[in-house]
Every structure is written in structure tokens, then in C-alpha cells.
Design a protein that fits this description.
The chain contains two helices and four strands. With 103 residues, it is of the alpha+beta class.
Length: 103
């Protein structure tokens, strides 16, 4: 499945099928969450959260692709990600874009 973050695919004509999306709510276990809290005292990257959000983006993207396939899409254009805190130590990540079928 071709996924791009622009609103067109050079040289391709397509029909729009609709919005495809995938989402996940991800958290870290207590031990890593506690250590992340300690890291805020001294500053720097909180690697556990970076890894958590990277994994969440991968899961959300896979779910987006699964939904686009179910719609009969050949590609997803205008891919976007959004995230929000659900509670301390947990975040929702949404991947969304426009599912299209090539002519």
C-alpha cells in the first residue's frame, strides 16, 4: 500500500474512497513510568516515552492500512498523525488519511 503525506500522487489518477484511520491508546508499565518521572527532575529525552509513541504510531498506521485495504484502496494520501494524552502515562495516537483507488 502506497502511503504519502501529500494530497496527490504524481502521474496517477484516482477515485477517492473516503477517510481511512487507525488509532491506539498506548501506555508504559509502572516501572518505566516511574523512571520517566524521575527523568523530568534532571531533564533530557525520556526514551521510554519516545519508544512508546513510536510503537503507537506503527500500530495506528497498520490499522489505517488495514482499514484502507478493506475499503479497496490502492493508496492513502495526505497521511496525518495526531496524539493526545488520555491520562498520565497513556496517549492516544491516530493516523488518518484519504483512501484512494487508482483508475
Amino acid at each position: 500500500m502506497l502511503i504519502v503525506n501529500i494530497g496527490y500522487i504524481p502521474g496517477k489518477e484516482f477515485d477517492v474512497l473516503g477517510i481511512a484511520r487507525g488509532s491506539v491508546v498506548q501506555s508504559k508499565h509502572f516501572g518505566k513510568d516511574f523512571m520517566a518521572g524521575m527523568k523530568t527532575l534532571v531533564g533530557g529525552e525520556i526514551v521510554g516515552y519516545t519508544e512508546m509513541l513510536d510503537e503507537a504510531r506503527q500500530i495506528a498506521t497498520k490499522r489505517l492500512v488495514d482499514q484502507a485495504h478493506a475499503m479497496g484502496a490502492d493508496a492513502v494520501i495526505n497521511l496525518r498523525f495526531s496524539s493526545s494524552a488520555i491520562m498520565q502515562g497513556a496517549a492516544e495516537v491516530i493516523a488518518y488519511g484519504t483512501a484512494v483507488r487508482f483508475r
